[in-house]
Design the sequence.
């Protein structure tokens, strides 16, 4: 099994000045498509699962993910995204996650420190890495035509240094002006990639960018150049998947298009296009050799496009 901790992935990225893509691939189809494309790209990545996704998918989904990782030669971390409590993080560790995020960024600063420190102590005792967040990242929710529900409070170098020293956290999500979800049509994000450079000079831990979807590539690239080592991607891959599925269903006879093995491949291929683009944007393609040496990449046994052939329509 090439299952590694988030710290292992990010420390190498930090040293070599690139970013690890973290994909919220919250379904079996999204995970399979993402894994396949990252194998082809030889891109180490983080499989991120949000607590609400885990509640929907059930704990046994983790078994599918671990088995998929077990069949690859990629270094991959299984990460709990935005754990809201100590209990969320402990539950994930029991399931086999190798990285957890404790997100108390919306709570008072002292409470954020205390809870993060508690999670770090428990996780480090079992060899699991921890991500936390300071500053606030806006949230557009599920309504892409709505308005930002939270103002962004940009992370300062002074706060980042104090937080890392007091918690011993392995990586830190910072606020540079991004938002979770998609931006409303009447809102332009006020990104400040230079904050990443300022914070990276104050702390010696990998920095994380949440809310990377729906942002200009040049701004994301600038953030990576300024010290960001983990890019969280959710909405962009899910929009591509949903668009591909909608296109197929809108142009098919509902009585004929009923088999999942026929419905999902087109959507998965559309999602893979986004994954490939993000892998390249993060400068993460062909980075596996930085983690360990191996002779030949593992071949993908069944590619998604094969399911569009007559062989699988019987």
Sequence:
């Amino acid at each position: 099994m090439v299952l590694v901790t988030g710290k292992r992935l990010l420390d190498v990225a930090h040293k070599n000045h690139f970013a690890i893509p973290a994909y919220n691939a919250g379904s079996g189809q999204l995970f399979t498509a993402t894994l396949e494309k990252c194998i082809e790209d030889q891109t180490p990545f983080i499989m991120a699962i949000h607590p609400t996704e885990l509640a929907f998918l059930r704990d046994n989904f983790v078994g599918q993910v671990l088995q998929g990782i077990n069949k690859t030669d990629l270094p991959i971390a299984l990460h709990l995204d935005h754990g809201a409590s100590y209990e969320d993080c402990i539950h994930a560790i029991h399931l086999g996650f190798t990285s957890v995020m404790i997100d108390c960024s919306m709570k008072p600063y002292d409470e954020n420190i205390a809870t993060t420190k508690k999670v770090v102590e428990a996780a480090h005792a079992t060899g699991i890495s921890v991500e936390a967040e300071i500053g606030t990242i806006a949230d557009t929710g599920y309504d892409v035509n709505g308005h930002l529900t939270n103002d962004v409070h940009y992370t300062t170098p002074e706060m980042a240094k104090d937080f890392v020293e007091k918690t011993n956290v392995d990586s830190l999500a910072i606020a540079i002006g991004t938002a979770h979800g998609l931006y409303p049509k009447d809102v332009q994000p006020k990104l400040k990639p230079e904050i990443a450079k300022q914070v990276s000079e104050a702390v010696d831990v990998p920095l994380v960018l949440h809310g990377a979807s729906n942002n200009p590539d040049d701004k994301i690239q600038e953030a990576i150049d300024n010290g960001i080592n983990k890019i969280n991607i959710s909405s962009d891959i899910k929009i591509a998947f949903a668009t591909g599925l909608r296109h197929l269903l809108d142009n098919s006879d509902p009585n004929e298009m009923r088999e999942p093995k026929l419905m999902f491949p087109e959507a998965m291929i559309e999602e893979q296009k986004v994954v490939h683009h993000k892998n390249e944007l993060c400068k993460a393609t062909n980075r596996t050799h930085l983690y360990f040496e191996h002779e030949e990449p593992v071949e993908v046994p069944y590619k998604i496009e094969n399911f569009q052939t007559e062989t699988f329509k019987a």
